[in-house]
Amino acid sequence: MDLDSFQSLLGNLGQDAWVAFQKIPGSAVLMRYVQSSYQNDPVRSAMELVLVLFFIRYLMSPSYRTDKQNYVKLREDEVEELIEEWTPEPLVSEQTPIELAESERVPIIVGPTGPKAKLANGRTVTNLASYNFYNFNGNEQIKEKAIQTLRTYGVGPCGPPQFYGTQDVHVKTESDIAAYLGTESCIVYAHAFSTITSVIPTFCKRGDVIVADEACNYSIRKGLEISRSNIKWFKHNDMDDLERVMKSVAKDQAKTKKLTRRFIVTEGLFETLGDSINLPASWNSRSDTSSASSSTRRGRLVCWAELVAASLRRRMWTPNRWT
């Protein structure tokens, strides 16, 4: 086929394609759109053409198969040779002389950890680096109950009803805790950290105002962040500064004339400092108190007495680090 015949064939094919395209409903509208688009913005038309060509190529390309085996097949002797030559890297790099010298000065605990720990040199010291300060892990009665629970309910990666499904042991635990704290009911979460970070966003939403103690622990701060509320801070246990912040919030609300919910978020027993809340009963606002570090009888009194004095309406109580 010479060049003239080929050009004639292309012309006939193009003309036939054009006639067939004109028979498609809506083709005239599409042509007017392309013409006006090219006249007004030729760059946009070029980009649209590229996208159309890419879409056509995508439709015409073969499907991707994960079971397609395109790797190089090795003989058995080659596989054995590669295995013998392979040397795994150590999981932990070797210690430097400085690290060795420092590790020799690190105290080594012998036996279980708790409020009191026995070191390898024979000394018994107070363990200030553990959350097991109530020694729940060393309580023989709790150990026996844990063994009985394992034999009855089994063991798994999750324990709370939100993951494991509500069972009689969950209902009884929630009932016992509610009776212990003197509340109507309670809900069991997987961990103390997730309790606070979940409860605060449940009650506090975007647009609400939260006045929080600046000494609140990290989990409370994450809950405040997730709530997306307007956060105001007052100095730790400084009621004068709290009054100043609350008056400022009330003044702003009077200007905007917008109904805004206000919350005071603090701790019953502060995790970072160890002191207790000092909130008088003169505040007409909703208050959330976390008592993650007060789960003994004294802790219950710390939380209960302060909450009653402040007319607080909600409590977040967590037996700190039972797990």
UniProtKB/TrEMBL annotation:
Where does the signal peptide begin and end?
none
Supply the alphabetized keyword list: Acyltransferase, Lipid metabolism, Pyridoxal phosphate, Sphingolipid metabolism, Transferase
Obligatory cofactor(s): pyridoxal 5'-phosphate
Which GO BP terms, alphabetically? Answer: ceramide biosynthetic process; sphingosine biosynthetic process
Give a Pfam family name.
Answer: Aminotran_1_2
Annotated Aminotransferase class I/classII large domain ranges read 124-279
Listed EC numbers = 2.3.1.50
- What InterPro entries does this protein's entry cite? Aminotransferase_I/II_large, AON_synthase_class-II, PyrdxlP-dep_Trfase, PyrdxlP-dep_Trfase_major, PyrdxlP-dep_Trfase_small
Which biological pathway?
Sphingolipid metabolism; Lipid metabolism; sphingolipid metabolism
List GO molecular-function terms, semicolon-separated: pyridoxal phosphate binding; serine C-palmitoyltransferase activity
Cellular component terms (Gene Ontology): endoplasmic reticulum; membrane
In terms of domain of life, where is this protein from?
Eukaryota
The family annotation for this protein states: Belongs to the class-II pyridoxal-phosphate-dependent aminotransferase family.
Q: What protein name is recorded for this chain?
A: serine C-palmitoyltransferase
Please tell me the species this chain comes from: Bionectria ochroleuca
